[in-house]
Amino acid sequence: MTQRKRLSNTQSSTQNRTQEEDDDTTFTQPSTSQVQRGLEKVTPAQVDQKTAEVVQYFLVKDQKKIPVRRADIVKHVVKEYRNIYPEIMKRAAHTFDQVFGLKLVEIDAKSHTYILINKLETTDGASPISSPANPKMGLLFVILSVIFMKEGVVKENVIWNTLKKLRVDLGKKHEDFGDVKKVVTDEFVRQRYLEYVRIPHTEPVEHEFRWGQRAEIEVSKARILEFMGELHGLEPQSWSQQYREAHPASNTQPGTSSQR
To answer: What is the mean pLDDT of residues 176-191?
Structure first.
């Protein structure tokens, strides 16, 4: 891909995100009194039906781990029931909790973007990323591990070189991942597992990776340290800075120096 095309794609992505944020400004969150008045104008069956539609919409999006924006919920699902949007979302969250064992989490308060998290994974640490059951999640776990161990941000060439050592070559179509670069810079970014940011004033254009909002919520940094310890035959405390970040509530003060 040429530098001009990469720059164009980055600018296009920024413009699309700006448009999405603008779309949400057309919706004003109803007050409690407005919601109450709105509920008086509809039947319980209508509210239940609309709640079921919202739940279904989330479940479909969640199959591909795509975050859901409030603007899209209102535009495509809630529609004329927007004056009772808070009540519908409250009931949907209750349904996810009681029926599906899922937690509805807002990961971006500015754009009002939501994801679903398995409640069991947040309590017992059995994240599908930390214990990947499919190749893509395994790929993601490796990338997130590299970023975490490099203090939260790495240039993209570091990631590509790491993957190449694992025989995942950008120049070849992978039997499990297909177009590896597209999966990493597009799919994982849209799912909010990664942030792929252009580094200012670089020529040719360079990018860097950071953890995305979904990763911050779903992924156990302690589990990553355990994995690294097993890989290198060391205790997790061997990486003192990362250990403190993974265990912020711990009073342990590891005496060993950080290793990279």
So the answer is: 89
